[in-house]
Amino acid sequence: MSDYRQQGEQLKAQLRAERQQLADTTLPRASSSVEPLGRYDLRPRRLLRGHYGKIYSMHWAADSQHLVSASQDGKLLVWDAYTSAKIYAIPLKSSWVMTCAYAPSGNLVASGGLDNICTIYDLSKQEESTGPIMKELNHHTGYISCCRFINDRQIVTSSGDMTCAVWDIERGIPVTVFTGHTGDVMSLSLSPDKQTFVSGACDATAKLWDMRDGKCKQTFEGHSLDINAVNFFPSGFAFGTGSDDKTCKLFDIRADQEICTYASERAQASVTSLAFSKSGRLLFAGYDDFNCNIWDTLKGEHVGVLATHENRVSCVGVSDDGMALCTGSWDCTLRIWT
Asked: Is the whole model's pTM more than 0.85, yes or no?
């Protein structure tokens, strides 16, 4: 057994060496002719109050007007970001929620957490006494860390049981289970074409999965500690990661390796969440030190900080139209920035 392990390590070292030979430049070097952004600032436009517990997750609707948030007060709230009004307040069976998602159609929202169940709520079918009709997806043997809708019929989940799964919502069963990580899977992000997704885990690796055949296509190393957040670059050819090692990284799928690291003396805390601007030029990252830092994706430079939250920034998201950023925090509030 030890011989096989040794052979595996030798092959990995060989692959790393070959990759290194192909890394003829870095992203900041390749973009040296591009003008730097300089200081970048956003203004807070809305303060969304209504939760009474730590907010763990938020997700924009495809219409860029509505968003859903999940808090450990045991509520899933659907907001109108234009008016700050609460549209729905959905009571959860388990208050230990970790993730939420809005379906592209706007008809469904989902949540998941320490109960190991992903629960789907149909906003278009309301019961007066119980609220939205719900469906429970029960297969994972660990907590649900992240979920994202492919459409109204399918959803992808990642879990503390080291797997991800694509579900048939109507039948309530996993269609494909993705295995390969050796630590809790903390985050996932769907590619723009929704054929592939990337996952980040506590084994400090990110993996690219193909939903058509259920296989891992690439594994990306570089972080030294748990990866807490992953997010696809708008083009679909790269993705960002955020880690407990206090850095964010940009990985290029075609180059099969890391092309930029985002770290600074001004960002000395674990990264909890991240999101790209619509153009991809900016990377917004939430940190444990109550800040949301802004990075110039091309130059790798720290260009701004949003510092109004009074506790950990647990989730960030850019609306589909690219016009607004939302940050959610353990201080029980969400803020909309433009």
From this structure: yes
